[in-house]
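Notes on consecutive records. When two proteins share a document, each keeps its own sequence and its own token line. Never mix them. Below: protein one.
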Amino acid sequence: MFPEELVRKIGAYLVYLIYTGRKDVSGNDWGDAFADAIGGMHLDSPVGIADVVFGKNCWSVKTVKAKDPFTSTGIRLISGRCSPDYSYGITDPHKDVQKTGEAVLSIWNERINIATDHYSRVRTAVMVRSYDLLSYRLFEEETTRYRTTDYHWTVNSNGNLTGLDRDGNVRFTWQPHGSQFTIHTEVPDGSVRFTVRKPPTLQKDDVLKSIGFDGSWITILD
């Protein structure tokens, strides 16, 4: 799903970030890189599904860190805050965890409904990055609704709610404190793997010299 030319553009943006001294790549950075590569617009909005748009297509962009992106088989995608208290009046999420879990998925589904009202394709673009920012893995998938009754919800040892599919696999985690919703996602075998060469770091003195900086640029006020 990622043509070679697109991967090279994404890689070039990442090299640029490293060169300018970036110690890590945030979700906003990944949104900027993806939008730049496809010629789209990064909305940079904390609300909703659509992060990057191009025509009638939109993407939710997610990045996660892994010790070795090339061998990672499963990742967790933080997918926003879903508050059943605000949306459904559920003040005690542990009183009926099944009801709470179904409410959380309903909130997620409604966000997708809103996105599909405005865009013909709603997808998720994922970048798994290494700790040294030199190895990456890319894949894209449909951003899907979930049938709320297909999952069984329990409480784990941390007091968080976990949604299990019919085979007993954990598919979701929801944290009552903060209402953070996480989707457990498998990394497809066909995802794109690539590395970048570490560039030299841009030095402060070189930057100041290149812009002709001198002491007159600083004005000390009484």
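Protein two starts on the next line and is unrelated to protein one.
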Amino acid sequence: MANTAYNDLFTTTLESRAGKLADNISKNNALLSKLKEKSNIRTISGGSKILEELEYGEGDMVWYSGFDTISYTPKQLFTAAEYAIKLCAVPVAVSGEDLLKNSGHARVMELMEKRIQNAEKTMSNQLASAMYGDGTASNGKSIGGLKLLVADAPTTGTVGNIDRSQSGNEFWRNQSATVEGIDSTNIIQHMNEMYLNCSRGVDKPDLIVTDDKLYAAFEQALQPLARYSDPKLVDAGFTTLKYKGADVIFDGGQGGYCPENHMYFLNTNYLYLRPHKDRNMKVIGGDRMAINQDAMYRIIGWAGNMTMSNAALQGVLINTPQASASTSEAGE
């Protein structure tokens, strides 16, 4: 029979940390931090899909004079992207033996805090990683991240149940450029080109996320003029520089998740994290006592997806390392 002596303590400790868990994750991920700042972490309350309405067409305008006929032809101006609800969970378990070995209120609290903190780190790291993924991890059960939404090859694949390869769906393709040998001597040129491709009037990229290689090239190019930007991100621990009003964030190195040799130009006005209101870093399922073990279990759960409502204003710059002279000569 399970040890129930500290059941209430275990449950209340987890519940009291639920809000902190969601906040910690946003602080540990630059993209999430930016989305939270813009109130783009929008909960859903139910339904089988997450919908983002898309405006992709324009109505008719006619120039006229006098009694010219002004005709109206109905057009489809709106559609919607559909995103599946994905679920993830981190179990937290404490055995009766551990509780006995750490008996006493203070020592038990310390044990539980350590287990819960580990669960928080696990969920934070795995969600941060998934936000850069293509949604194929865990046999397609993961959320669709930047590798899906802002794809290297935007003319193929299906995003939000819209086939990007079909004629008429060009509006749903992000910008993408693959360049060989990006370094400090030419990175500004290529960034300028991508930035312009992702701009529409006052709509411009406000966040650029990159790996260590391209960040180092950008920083070296700006070394004489380098300055830190956005004190909110700097205070949160992110290394950030400024480019045409956009924050340039380094998410490489140890524990970084940005794909190697990638630089994402993001307009976060059209990117969202859509968690379910009842499964947003919360303890789910109530009490879970092992039937044939002396142990207590709790599960921290999350459900939702990462969504996008405008693809054309997002972009990715991809660097392919230049082949060495010896490699070229060998090929000849």
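For the record: Residues 151 and 174 are 7 Å apart (CA to CA).
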